Amino acid sequence: MGKKNNYTKSELAEVRGSIVHGRGMFATQNIPESTEIIEYLGERIDKEESNRRGHALFDESKETGGAQVYLFTLDDEWDLDGNFEWNTARLVNHSCEPNCEAQIDEELKIWLVALRDIRQGEELSFNYGFDLEDYAKHPCRCGSENCVGYIVAEEYWPKLKKKLKKKKAKAKRKAEKKAEKKAEKERKRVSALKADG
Ligand SMILES: [Zn+2]
User: How many whole angstroms from 97 Cα to the centroid of ligand 1?
Assistant: First the structure.
């Protein structure tokens, strides 16, 4: 197990209230591109344990309507579970237009690294990189101009956009059918009135 009483610390970032999820991490000074800002701590677990915890979270999400997912893939053998209070970096919010990226180093440590120069006071964010599978469970409110509406890894964005387009078309057809039915009912009512009169 990790360091229970040793919260992740970084001189470069601090926890503050956030408009996105209530809390987030913010740059305490100007940070140059490519800087390792904070380590994403957690417990290293094997795939079997990771699957077990993933399923437990999934069941929980069915009850509560949304579980936070802090499981990271490290390599073919190991994952990292960051769902611990002492992993301060878990408070960094997701964004569709992030200024950080989670990178794994040679020692299988995860670092949030600046994707560009970050100004003092800016909120830090990274793409959580979730699968497409349960996208509907993770709506995104990052507020960025290019927000795709859901927390999904960028590699799945084209597929997601196709799915959403289909969904929208289906909803539109349904609405049209409903309107048609209503109009038909109204026509029948009017002709019945005419027959009566
Ligand atoms: Zn977004």
Answer: 7
Report pTM.
0.79
Structural element, H or E, at residue 17: strand 13-18
CA of 153 to the centre of ligand 1 (A): 11
Average pLDDT, the chain: 88
CA end-to-end span of the chain: 84
Phi-psi region of 153 (alpha: psi -120 to 50; beta: other; left: phi over 0): beta
Residues contacting 156, CB < 8 A, separation 6+: 131, 132, 135
Interval between CA 148 and ligand 1 midpoint (Å): 5
> 19 alpha carbon to ligand 1 midpoint, in Å?
13
Q: How sure is the predictor about 4, in pLDDT bands with cuts at 50, 70 and 90? A: very low
